[in-house]
Write a structure and sequence with these properties.
The chain has two domains: 122 residues, TonB-dependent receptor, plug domain (Ferric Hydroxamate Uptake Protein, Chain A, domain 1, Beta Complex), CATH 2.170.130.10; 67 residues, no CATH class. 20% of the residues lie in helices and 37% in strands. It has four helices and 15 strands. The protein has a five-stranded mixed sheet. A four-stranded antiparallel sheet has the order 10-11-12-15, with no helix packed on it. A hairpin with a 5-residue loop joins strand 13 and strand 14. The protein is globular. The N and C termini lie far apart (72 Å). 22% of the residues are buried.
Length: 237
């Protein structure tokens, strides 16, 4: 009898303890407001996505966090409808609205920006998602805003700007063909006016690629080592 009473009191106590927490969570959900998505690439000013007079895709934080690949090229390939050509360990190029893929900064038809500035001949395969906040993709002619290189469209890679205490993330993984990768990313405020984001990654495919029929393609193993660094400052007053 005593055991039954103790069990009953224990159950009541647990239920009572969980009720405030559940109520608090529901209150937080009720108070939470969904922020409207803002884009800047289509008009070179902040505009709500649904009010933009153009076709725009946004790859946000959720897409970046849930995509396994580390570099931005493969994330574009998996999360957008633009054509991405990727040669692992070498180069990558993009194509928008049927224009040929671009692999250099010469005679471009699809413009790549980093924080709104032309990326030039930057190899997109060297940009890690650890340093990216979101990607805005403008499809269709944008030469009036960005010049002749934007005939097919624009890809604007907006980098992360970490605030608050410095945080560090370690990531690792592996796969077929004796592939393994490791990366470390860190970011935050150095002082009241200075902040930074930095990342380093290493990826090795140590075994040559084997095709579906079992034949080995020689010299297809590769190594990738990339690093990114951003320093920012705020001047107020």
């Amino acid at each position: 009898m005593k055991m039954k009473l103790m069990t009953a009191f224990l159950i009541i106590g647990l239920i009572t303890a969980f009720q405030p927490a559940m109520a608090e969570e529901k209150q937080e959900e009720a108070n939470a407001a969904k922020l409207e998505e803002i884009v800047v690439t289509a008009t070179r000013s902040e505009v709500k996505k649904e009010e933009v007079p153009a076709v725009v895709e946004v790859i946000g934080k959720l897409d970046l966090d849930t995509t396994v690949d580390r570099n931005i090229v493969r994330i574009l390939k998996k999360n957008s409808s633009i054509d991405v050509i990727d040669y692992p360990g070498v180069l990558s190029g993009i194509s928008i609205r049927g224009f040929r893929p671009e692999f250099s900064g010469i005679t471009k038809h699809s413009l790549v920006l980093i924080d709104g500035r032309p990326a030039g001949a930057t190899n997109l395969a060297t940009i890690l998602k650890d340093n990216v906040e979101r990607v805005e993709i403008l499809k269709g002619p944008a030469s009036a805003l960005y010049g002749a290189e934007a005939m097919g469209g624009v890809v604007n890679i907006i980098t992360k700007r970490s605030k608050g205490k410095i945080k560090t993330h370690l990531t690792g993984g592996g796969g077929s063909f004796s592939t393994h990768y490791e990366s470390i990313a860190s970011g935050g405020k150095i002082s009241d006016r200075l902040d930074f984001d930095a990342s380093v990654s290493n990826k090795n495919q140590n075994t040559d690629f084997r095709m579906g029929n079992g034949h080995k393609r020689d010299n297809t193993g590769y190594k990738e080592r990339y690093g990114n660094l951003r320093l920012g400052s705020s001047f107020t007053g």
